[in-house]
Specification:
This protein is an alpha/beta fold and about 425 residues long. Helices cover about 45% and strands about 15% of the residues. It has helices spanning about 10-25, 25-35, 80-100, 120-135, 150-165, 190-205, 225-235, 260-270, 325-335, 345, 350-365, 370-395, 400-415, and strands spanning about 40-45, 55-60, 70-75, 105-110, 140-145, 215-220, 240-245, 250, 280, 295, 315-320, 340. The chain has a 7-stranded mixed β-sheet with strand order 9-8-7-6-10-11-12, with helices on both faces. Strands 1-2-4-3-5 form a 5-stranded mixed β-sheet.
Length: about 425
């Protein structure tokens, strides 16, 4: 079976079409939601260590700001495309709405392999990108955060650059989230997306009447999201039998020591040659074929395709990455009665805690780690319940139900504001 499309923007447009059709919504609404409001393309000159200047291409896409300011991460990756950033921005709108955040969606990206830059070059690029998008961002307008290839340090440089340009003597913390704790960051933010993936897998196990403590888990993509998803699923009692990254897949039937593997990747930058406690190393694709109950794709888009889907043995998929499952692969999974917690719900923990960080920056009042995780869990479990109940009522799957809820929630401010 050949995939009809792997273009994530065409995939999200199809998801919106299905959601609008299921709600009996108008074509007008579909057309309004199927293209972003604003797409900014920038070129960023960066002074390199050898004194030459290299120019990088970047984007900032704002999908829809009817519900409030827009929000979404910044990706530094060599495979970034305009369509990918448009898709990621669109997913952000729906993600924010299903967990009840007062935001629309946005996303940014730069075509670059950050691993090939020195620290100074990375700082120059981060500052250059922040400067280039400054005219369209702001704490009440569009609030970026980290994504693949960016982190708290990158956000700190961007806060500094933005404050110099727009601060008039003030430090403007609330314009970026995902910052280091020492610079207005939020406790629990770095854990948030993976923690959410884990609690959504737990909720899925409950509705499937499975005992979480007897479940085996495979996590594809052992980066920020995947490593914390594995850590928290292990804490909830499941056994992590395989983890993978871009270099390899580590398998251990007796269970992987997740904390040990996390420390190893910090030192070695990848899982390559990880051999602790009987673990064996296989090619990265081996993750798909391991025997498990929960499969958590936490790397990039289009991981579960019509090819890889046939290898998966899990009963539950909790999507940590954005857009990891192609529509053809999803059809196959649903036919096999595999329960999918869709990305816009499963990985919404990151933006939920980014929202808490933004609120804390605006109020200058900070919560404890436990308070943050409690607030995150309440929002995500409540979103899971509403989506699951609608999926039962409409006899549909979790993704379509999630889109139906998000589209309904977005249609209201759009109509109130007179856009429809
Ligand atoms: P990351 O860069 O920290 O981790 C990505 C991991 O995937 C790395 O370990 C990388 O080696 C691995 N990987 C890449 N290609 C792979 C392949 N073909 N097979 C196996 N592993 C592969 O990025 P992250 O922040 O963890 O983000 C991962 C995904 O989660 C992305 O889709 C991102 O958009 C999404 N997401 C992230 C957040 C967040 O808070 N970081 C929030 C929501 C969604």
């Amino acid at each position: 079976m050949l995939e009809k499309t792997l273009n994530p923007f065409e995939i999200v447009q199809k998801q919106i079409r299905q959601g609008c059709d299921a709600l009996g919504e108008s074509d007008e609404l579909y057309h309004l939601l199927s293209e972003p409001e604003r797409v900014l393309e920038v070129s960023i000159p960066v002074k390199m260590d050898d004194s030459t200047t290299k120019t990088f291409v970047g984007y900032r896409v704002q999908h829809n700001d009817a519900p409030g300011p827009t929000k979404g991460g910044i990706r530094f990756h060599p495979a970034v495309t305009k369509d990918e950033v448009k898709a990621l921005a669109t997913w952000m709108t729906f993600k924010c709405l299903i967990v009840g955040l007062p935001y629309g969606g946005a996303k940014g990206g730069v075509i670059v392999d950050p691993k090939l830059l020195s620290l100074r070059e990375l700082e120059n690029l981060s500052r250059g990108y922040a400067k280039a998008i400054t005219p369209i961002i702001g704490e009440k307008r569009d609030i970026p955060a980290p994504d693949v290839g960016t982190d708290g340090q990158v956000m700190a440089w961007m806060v500094d650059e933005y404050s110099q340009l727009r601060g008039v003597g003030q430090t403007l913390l609330a314009v970026f989230t995902g910052k280091p704790i020492e610079l207005g960051g939020c406790l629990g933010r770095k854990e948030a997306t993976g923690y959410g993936v884990a609690i959504m897998a737990r909720e899925a196990a409950k509705v499937k009447n499975l005992d979480f403590e007897k479940l085996k888990v495979v996590v594809q993509g052992f980066g920020n999201v995947g490593s914390y998803a594995a850590k928290y699923m292990h804490q909830l009692g499941a056994k992590i039998v395989a983890i993978s990254d871009s270099t390899c897949c580590i398998v251990n039937e007796a269970g992987i020591d997740v904390i040990h593997a996390m420390k190893y990747t910090i030192i070695n930058n990848s899982l390559k040659d990880y051999q602790y406690n009987g673990s064996i190393e296989l090619p990265r694709e081996a993750a798909f074929e391991q025997d498990c109950d929960i499969f958590a794709p936490c790397a990039l888009e289009n991981a579960i395709t019509s090819e890889t889907v046939k290898l998966i043995k899990a009963k539950i998929i909790s999507e940590g990455a954005n857009g990891p499952t192609t529509p053809e692969a999803e059809k196959y999974l649903l036919e096999k009665d595999i329960f999918i917690v869709p990305d816009i719900l499963a990985n919404a923990g990151g933006v939920t805690v980014s929202y808490l960080e933004w609120v804390q920056n605006l109020y200058h009042y900070y919560w404890t780690f436990e308070e943050v995780q409690e607030k995150q869990e309440i929002k995500m479990v409540s979103a899971f319940k509403s989506i699951y109940e609608l999926s039962l009522e409409k006899e549909t799957d979790m993704r379509k139900a999630a889109y139906m809820i998000a589209i309904q929630r977005l249609a209201k401010p759009l109509r109130l504001r007179g856009w429809l």
